[in-house]
Amino acid sequence: MTRQGLNLGRGVRRRHFIDKVMTAVVTGAGWVAIVFIALIFLFTFREALPIFTDPETSKEANLHEFFVKSLPGETMEQRKVWQPVGDIPKFSFIPLLLGTLKATAVGLLFACPIAVAAALFSSEFAPPKLREWIKPVVELLAGIPSVVLGFFALLVLGTWLQNMFGFTYRLNAYNAGIALGIALLPVIFTISEDGFSSVPRNYREASLAIGASKFQTAWKVVLPAALPAVFAAFVLAFGRAIGETMILLMAGGNAAITSFDLRDPLRTLSATIAAELGEVVFGDPHYSALFFMGTLLFVITFISNTIGQWVIAGMQRRMQGDL
Amino acid sequence: MSSAADYREDDTLTRRVPSRSRRRVGEAIWIGLLGTSVLLILAILFVILGDVIFNGVGHVTWEFITQSPRMGLTEGGIYPAIVGTTILVLLMTIAAVPLGVATAVYLHEYTPPETPRQAWARFRSSVGAEKNKAMRTWIMSVLAAVTRTAVANLAGVPSIVFGLFGLGFFIQFVGRGMDKAMHGGELVWGQGNLLWAALTLALLTLPTVIVATEEALRTVAPDLRAASIALGATRWETIRRIVLPGALPGILTGGILGISRGAGEVAPILFTGAAYYLPYLPERLHNQFMHLGYHVLILSTQSPDVEATKPVLYGTVFVLLVLTFLLNLAGVLLRARTRSRMRLGG
Question: Does the global pTM surpass 0.95?
Fold first, then answer.
């Protein structure tokens, strides 16, 4: 009522009206992110739903078929088969899950040590001038589109690795995993570097003051204090690796075989969606199975992201409390 | 009960510590190893770039970037792919940047700065008329926290899932719905096209824009806002005239970085409109399009003769890298400049 009390003119009332409208508009926009997260899940899952509701679809594609069912056969390779096109389609997710896990494991094993070591160096030992160079360079690496990394692994890296180690197949889990690892390097580096930098200065000063060397301080004080951030970096990188598509589609060899051997070609869940969705019949059990895979990827990455952010937030709170 | 044996054990412990100079050498080696991993990352970057530049730059001629592909993609240029990528990126920017900036403005300017926990504590300790206000603050801070989590999770959704979503939502739901309502079931919008691909990509770049814009808004001094409000400006006027201009460089940076990410993504457009080969350029929003990244995928996986397509392939990768890197570099440099200016200006 103050507005009338002050006897404000029409212009002012108009300005306040605009302010109200813009508040509504901006608040609405703020909700879009939430709405779309929900929509992404709903609409991916909606196309996968016939697996549970439609009797025709669920006869061929169902959870038992995906995860449990074994065909008669001597080896794992014959028992668990992904062969969605044919007279009797076979929908076992096991070879694809195995391919995803193999590539992810190699990628993480390749990227984690390098990225964490580089982050520790950049945060604790690099002179400020050098540090200002390292970060943009890592960002450039992050800026390489994954299709280019896939192309590089397919045409160049695969041949190099084969010549070096004498692999039977040029495209295998090592090749795909290392290419994937290159994409993970910037993710792990950035998050753990932020973690190391957020360790309060007085931790370091206290350690140096009681006679520890710079290396001892970095290794025994900074690294343990920032361990949650490093863990979060691994978890977020895991989420990225599970969902990465183009690199694995191109560098993995595209063979959905159930094999624990890292020297065999592989096919991941993501690559399967990318390779097969273009040719699938709309509404087919195969179509629903691919969308179910997408839902699975969404859920796995959603969980790992939530864990990662939760750990980072907890660490930030603790570090700020300590300051 | 300290026996002689215990004492001796302590003694060995102290003796195991190496001399200071030997410790220094050991540490220098460790630090060297850490530094080597930085070098390794640099080496990986330069090997990839070097390979693409070395094999690609020779093939990028005027004809290559102004002509259509010929002879089953083994000859001719990539003009339609360049045009398609450019239009796609422009459309994506038009959709993503305003929405992203608005979301960031909401998060930073319209929600309370307290965390839900702090707001709840204040609500518990407040009395009387304050109680209502504190309650509202708490609700707002919870909404902000939920939105932030949603944004962060949106950033982590795999790009192929965005592609599935684009197909399931934009094409099957919205597009088919539009066709039924306006075109009597004829297929116009119910298939992959520029618009759906651009909107799918816009969703993917949204988190990058939001996070960067929020960071930029944080750099605008609170005093400026207070001064503007004190002079009688409304909240929106303050944001439009004071906050947004001040945060503009940061917003541009975020926009550019987001766009460069979107320009290189292929998985989301696989099923939402990218075409293998088109004899014409896209003219309408419901046309399909060629795309540099998709072209790279097609050339390197679908080619019957790998050696014959290699030059075109390297040329295409080179052009794609130049495009994304120029955008990226512009973003990184712009940000570095803004940051150093802020440090100086205080």
Answer: no
